[in-house]
């Protein structure tokens, strides 16, 4: 049964009161976003990875969460520079994409499916970079380097992380500015003109202010040839810049400001022909199959052999993508606890162009969906410090997201010949579909509010009980507005006009609607863990997450 916001607030306030009823024990604070290099323990022949999966600095082996954690050394030695590389290290993580916007991230087989291609639906696997949730999967495909660590957390994580994620989370932490000067980088070269540069410089500006600058540049030449114009396709060009300031005016206050900018573009050329269905199992011809259409239009397809790497498209398929953002994280040591604020703004823009028929025939002139996304988020949380009978983390979170989307289907001068069956009246088909265009505008908007809290009760040495609650209230609203235009049907008979309109209705007509959904839900988790003997940790967990509608 849905829980009202008022009742949920009472639940959260009661939980918070219970949390703060425990006596505070003073201890040296360890902010979750501090430079962990100073506290990272080392072992002979290996590395103990320090993680902040529970919003405090701990060894990964001491955390009762299904987690894969990778430190800087392993990330660099395996050249793990994006999420697609990361899945090679984490079997439960699967990242697939037909293009950056259509990126699907799954953990344990759960997460995104084709629904992620819908701008009004949210992913079930959250990606966080330096504490900031990336609301669209397309934001994750830029190069990630100069990292401190990556954590892949399986299962619902809403009682600790700002945005509720029902299937898991990928937590990326970049290296912080240092008060000792340092610089470095690497250069890589490969086949098909691959070249990659990573470079960073870090050091103090004053006794209390340090800065870090990181640049990443990756390029690769194309390796498919477009028969239409001779261009090489599937090239790749990625440029990223990230600058940071770290301000520590006192021992109790840390302020970290991160700004980043990135762009990516490619000439995508088109698909490689592997073949086409020409007949049924009984040998009967598959009507209007690819080769039949090509023969009817006098078109010679490219060889159906991937070894040739030949495409043939005339619509200049390509994409351009860019993003930028700023993140301000403040940690204030209150003695018994650390208060943390994470404020962020991000923008992501996606501009593709696709050949709608995959040939050099002027049929599908341009099919694409572009996005202009903006998000603002604010997280405020408090976490206990030091050794105490009960550790706690509690917080409030808000996310605003707006996506302006444009979907375009533009048909060329021979669209009717290519897309319609040969039994269609030629005059009707040409009037209906040739030079026809369907363009839609949409704008889904999300407002998400949440309160979360988690406690860890140290029952006896080595045995802990962790419990957490989260209440999320989310609203989504938006509109869809589609227009269509084409050749005049005035020269057709009434019957032909009706037939032409019936054809157009299958390819898109004017349409508009508005929609809205809102819901509030409670989720939580409970974990009983037992440190049998170092490094053996056993635990049992129950967790529940929610994925909202759209």
| Apparent shape | elongated
Low-confidence stretches: 1-46
Counting H and I runs of at least 4 residues, what is the number of helices?
A: 7
Give the beta-strand count: 29
Strand count, sense and closure of the main sheet?
Answer: 14 strands, antiparallel
Compute the separation of the termini in Å.
Answer: 19 Å
Strand percent estimate:
over 45%
- The overall average pLDDT, rounded, is 87
Cα Rg: 27 Å
Question: What structural class results from the helix and strand content?
Answer: mainly beta
Helix content: 10-25%
Short recap of the structure:
The chain is mostly beta strands and 550 residues long. The chain has helices at residues 5-20, 72-77, 83-86, 290-296, 415-419, 426-433, 494-507; strands spanning 42-43, 46-47, 50-51, 58-59, 67-71, 93-97, 103-107, 110-111, 125-129, 132-134, 147-154, 168-174, 182-189, 195-204, 209-220, 224-226, 232-233, 236-247, 253-267, 310-311, 318-333, 337-353, 364-384, 390-411, 437-442, 445-460, 463-485, 511-533, 536-544.
Structure description:
This protein has about 550 residues and is mainly β. It has seven helices and 29 strands. The protein has helices at about 5-20, 70-75, 85, 290-295, 415-420, 425-435, 495-505, and strands spanning about 40-45, 45, 50, 60, 65-70, 95, 105, 110, 125-130, 130-135, 145-155, 170-175, 180-190, 195-205, 210-220, 225, 230-235, 235-245, 255-265, 310, 320-335, 335-355, 365-385, 390-410, 435-440, 445-460, 465-485, 510-535, 535-545. The strands form six sheets. Strands 13, 14, 15, 18, 19, 21, 22, 23, 24, 25, 26, 27, 28 and 29 form a 14-stranded antiparallel sheet that branches. A five-stranded mixed sheet has the order 5-11-12-9-10. The longest helix has 16 residues, at about 5-20. The radius of gyration is 27 Å and the shape is elongated. The model is unreliable at about 1-45 (pLDDT under 50).
